[in-house]
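Notebook p. 47: complex prediction with adenosine-5'-diphosphate.
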Amino acid sequence: MSVLLTLNNVNKTFIKDGEEFHAVSDVNLSVNTGEFLTFLGPSGCGKTTTLRMVAGFEMPTTGSILMGDRDITYMPANERNIGFVFQNYALFPHMKIFDNVAYGLRVRGESKTDIARKVREGLALVGLEKAEERYPNQLSGGEQQRVALARVLVLRPSLLLMDEPLSNLDAKLRIHMRSEIRRIQQELSLTCLYVTHDQKEALTMSDRIMVMNRGRIEQVGTPMEIYADPASAFVADFIGQANLIPGTLVAEEGDIGVFESHGVRVKARLGRQTPPAVGKEALLIVRPENLSFAESDNALPIVVEHCLFEGDRLDYQARLAAEGAADKLEMSVPFLPGTQIHADGTNIKASFQPHGAVIIAK
Ligand SMILES: Nc1ncnc2c1ncn2[C@@H]1O[C@H](COP(=O)(O)OP(=O)(O)O)[C@@H](O)[C@H]1O
Ligand SMILES: [Mg+2]
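Predicted complex, structure tokens below:
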């Protein structure tokens, strides 16, 4: 695997309300050629700022950015051969689709025949070969976003940056466009940096995800690594749903740890990203869908507080039923005809497989 892009200790400070504000802090990242890497995090965590520094619209305060071996930290944006697709696709309304897509090629001074061929290839790639003669306002939002993508793709950028490109589309179309963008990226073996605050988008589209929080990297890994072995409570909570129970690691048995909280002992996998230490404070992370009412020794005593019928499943809200505990617990069990519903106030056990939960250092 060859590295296409490297961010070395990148920092960006803005002056906000007269004070220094660290929008991006100590970002180190290598992006492989052909990789689809997503920046994921809540609004304001520095995703766009990081992307804009890669694009050349913003200069890092300190640190450097390399493409291959070449330092591009201060290279003008238009010399980087990087494509950018924004949330607001901003097509030229008075130009036909053909001319919108041809625009960048004409600016480059390419020949008429090359332009015609490339525009047709670009539109075919995004499934809009019949739209050449139409105007943007004759297309749906999703189609316009495909045109915006085609317009960038015909320029054959060595790196494609996308900043929340699906945010303006309705829910159903957004889900469809996830797989469309992924298909195109794979067809062209394109290297992509993709920004979103939508964890499902990140999980379904990416080769790797960089989770950001307050300008810093929390974790970089494949979607499954991040889901199964979160490096922090923040990551566990931001990606999917998670019950976080504070306690202590009391023993280790291979890759399994014995965890104790309020006198209750359970076994779970030891986190590899942020390994806990025996005798020290730790967090048990267990996802609602990994808890069940099955008989087992590995269980947390709970009191049911509320049950929501979701059609395909039951979502329980409960609390840990141990002396002095105030921890809330969510539990999601499949609903099939005949599934028993436990009433509010029921004392019961929520069990899980040791490999279905993880213990990390607090
Ligand atoms: N030009 C700027 N001047 C001052 N503050 C900025 C500027 N651009 C971004 N910020 C601040 O930096 C933080 C990160 O912004 P941004 O990268 O846009 O976050 P995200 O894309 O993750 O929502 C925010 O608090 C934002 O207000
Ligand atoms: Mg943003």
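Notes: The two ends are 35 Å apart (CA to CA). The CA atoms of residues 230 and 236 lie 5 Å apart.
Next step: compare against the earlier run before touching the bench.
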